[in-house]
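Complex 239.
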Amino acid sequence: MTENSDHDHSQRKLIIAIDGPAGAGKSTIASRLARKLGYVNLESGAMYRALALKAIEEDASFDDEAALVKLAQESRIQLEPTMGGNRTLLNGHDVSARIRERDVTEAASRVSVHPGVRAWMVARQREMGVGGGVVMEGRDIGTKVFPDADLKVFLDADPVVREQRRMEQQKIKGEVAANVAADLRERDHRDRTRAVSPLLAAEDAVVIDSTKMSEDEVLAQVEELASRKLRHSVVRSIP
Ligand code: DC
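Predicted structure with 2'-deoxycytidine-5'-monophosphate bound:
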């Protein structure tokens, strides 16, 4: 599906932060919004996932902060937007599918608690988004990576609904579904309670509870917020 933009691209290019817990619909909304605006969609979670995969491959402990930071420094983690979606490359290899598997998902949540790992990630993410024209999604984009982002959205939903969406997305049922739900709850808890940059809505974020909303409704609301910011930035630029 192409979602052609009817926005004026001569305008200033915004930095848009979309944060929220797993299963709230961030990825879908961020990628559809980016397509509409002609922006790049950068998924910060994929970078934590790529590092987690590297740690698994190297048999590094998820609790060894120094070893993880060293691994990050030695690795080349790239997010590559393509027409068919985003690809994640680890040292030149396409790991887009591998990083979605259960062991990497669990490991990503564990490696991301370390301040040193986060500092490295935040620095890379700032470099990637600094020029604007990006929709960056994650957990700490509006609070830490781009505290001055033009638009901050915190996308949330009831935990039960998030679990259901995840299961539908992955077309899973029964015992596997129960595992997915338990994993999601555990990951949520870890993301929200970690000491450094816990998952939290920025004070100036627009919080959208998508529990009872369709994907199209959420997108329309976020798009309207972005359009308002763009209109505002044009008015401001008139001498
Ligand atoms: O968004 P995701 O599910 O792909 O993220 C995987 C893990 O990475 C998640 O459990 C927490 C961590 N993460 C983070 O700490 N900060 C971010 N900006 C993005 C992800």
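The beta strands are 15-19, 40-43, 77-82, 85-90, 93-94, 134-138, 151-156, 206-209.
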